[in-house]
Amino acid sequence: ELVQFLLVKDQKKIPIKRADMLKNVIRGYRGAYTEVVNQAGRTLQEVFGLQLVEIDPKRHSYILTSNLPCAEGNHPCRSKEKAKIGLLTVILSFIFMKGNSVKDSAVWEFLRRLRVHPGEQHEIFGDVQKLVTEEFVRQKYLEITPIPLTDPPQFNYQWGPRAAKETSKKDILNFVAKVQGKSPKFWSSQYNEA
Predict the structure, then answer these.
(1) Which end of the chain is more exposed for a tag (fewer CB within 10 A), N or C?
(2) Where is the domain boundary, 16, 38, 66?
(3) Tens digits of per-residue pLDDT, 65-111?
(4) Residue 13 belongs to what domain range?
(5) Domain shared by 61 and 99, yes or no
(6) Within the chain, where are the H helices?
């Protein structure tokens, strides 16, 4: 039952809370919580190639990540989802290459140069600003923190815990190097960090 619950919840890519697992599935078996979660984790791994990962130990929230190698072109997601992941990869790359934290104005200026405008409806992404500031944040791919004492309010963008679990700085640097047609070693500080 827990495996099914986790698979359904993960479709929206929103972290799954321990409280929801207890309330909706485990109910009267609270004493066996750890054992039930561990068994569900093994089943997810063996049957679906997914790993149950705790991303926030304080709030006890979890995500599912794929253990399966991802062959380019054979990705099971639809083209719109692929495009969103592409946009997310570009944003994560920008954040990493700029020192792991970037002001919101820099992110939007960067996207404008790619002809993706935050205030306009995009034919593939829809409302880009909502996608980036709400959906990617809710899914824990991005974290947005306010910069104190700024008027109008400004924000910093960083990688979220799901991004750190589903990709690596090395993969992102290799992506940037491939796009730029250079060796990853060209960016020595990012290369050392990755």
Answers:
(1) N
(2) 66
(3) 876 544 444 444 455 677 788 888 889 999 999 999 999 999 999 88
(4) 1-66
(5) no
(6) 2-10, 18-21, 33-43, 79-97, 104-113, 128-130, 136-138, 161-166, 169-180, 188-193
